[in-house]
Amino acid sequence: MDEMRKSDEQIAREAKALFDASVDELDAATLSTLNQGRHRALEEARSPRGELLRWVPAAGVAAAVLVGVMVTLPGPGPVEVMPSAVADMEILLGEDSLEMFEELEFYSMLDVIDEGDDVG
Amino acid sequence: MNTETATYAVSWVSEQSTGTRALQQEQQLNRFLAEVERRALRIAEIGVRNRDDALDLVQDAMIKLVRKYGDRPSNEWAPLFYRILQNGVRDWHRRRAVRNRVMVWFGRGASGDDEYDVVAAAPDPTGRSPDEELQNSEAMVSLEAAVQALPARQREAFMLRAFEGLDVAGTAMAMGCSQGSVKTHYSRAIHSLRETLGEHGPEGSEDG
After folding, report:
1. Do B96 and B131 lie in a common domain?
2. Looking at the structure, do residues B16 and B75 belong to the same domain, yes or no?
3. B50 touching A, CB under 8 A?
4. Domain range enclosing B120
């Protein structure tokens, strides 16, 4: 058991030594790119744009949920709304309306007669 | 008037203190990233077998760590950073698999693109520059190919434990799994490497 563990450790240690050597041999251009990337990361995190971008995913999810709710939930039942032009025509062409106009003519005639009596 | 002055002074001191703290935190993050970036690049490179893509993944991980977890305790940065990086590597493989499927659908993908060929994926042993020649030493080529050939979770466990030196708890945090799983993946990885590398393995690179 101890022998096995030691062997595992040896493999890991030797692999680590090779890995570290390959890290040490990274070329200057790669190291420069890494350095620039690090500074860019720190700058982006500092900028207000970065702060705003943090909310973009949340805003996207909220919008998607809203659209989902609008699509999924049943809307209000059908409401009978009579178009105004049609309603106007019905009022004008209905029999009651003509009677109302005739009565208006009658009452205005009575008014004229009353006024004549007052004068006389 | 005195009250206003005192309030202003307290506010100014508070702002200065906050600013100083932010600056110190940024310096700490800078030091942490500078310390970890080269090993992270090599780990990502072994994961995706492409240096440019690995550089992109490391930078993305840096940005995400600073933005999302910069205010976390500094001892959590390493596992968090590697968790972000490993997620990036996994996403890279998913995107690649999808792209290959699409290319196959349009008749442009090479057959067997999804299958990993250890020999084909290993760095060119002939090298193209003195630096590359040094880097492409036979032992490292063998080790890298063997690590790349491991199943993804075993590879992650091995690289985080052996290469980066994270402990079991940190590796579990980075991999998003239990410590028991880390031990299992790591043990299987070591066993596979011993089987794969055999007598041509990394042994002797350190001790002779």
Report:
1. no
2. yes
3. no
4. 116-208
> Which of B 181-200 lie inside 8 A of A, CB atoms?
187, 190, 193-194, 197
Contact B67 A14 (CB under 8 A): no
Asked if B185 and B156 touch (Cβ cutoff 8 Å), the reply is yes
Q: CA B110 to CA B122: how far, in whole Å?
A: 19
Contact B62, B82 (CB under 8 A): no
Same domain flag for B18 and B99: yes
B62–A38 C-beta distance less than 8 A: yes
A-B interface: how many C-beta pairs under 8 angstroms? 110
Per-residue pLDDT of chain A in tens (120 residues, 90 and over written 9):
444 555 788 889 989 999 999 999 999 999 999 999 999 999 887 776 555 555 666 777 777 877 777 767 665 555 555 556 666 656 555 555 555 555 666 667 667 766 666 554
pLDDT in tens, B45-103: 999 999 999 999 999 999 999 999 988 999 999 999 999 999 999 999 999 888 888 87
Out of B78, B94, B112, a domain closes at: B112
Number of independent structural domains in chain B: 2
What number of residues does chain A have? 120
Enumerate helices (H) and strands (E) in chain A, giving the number of each.
Answer: 6, 0
Residue spans of the domains in chain A: they are: 2-72, 84-119
How many angstroms away from the CA of B9 is the closest CA of chain A? 26
What is the C-alpha to C-alpha distance for residues B141 and A18, in angstroms, rounded to an integer? Answer: 10
User: ipTM for the complex?
Assistant: 0.74
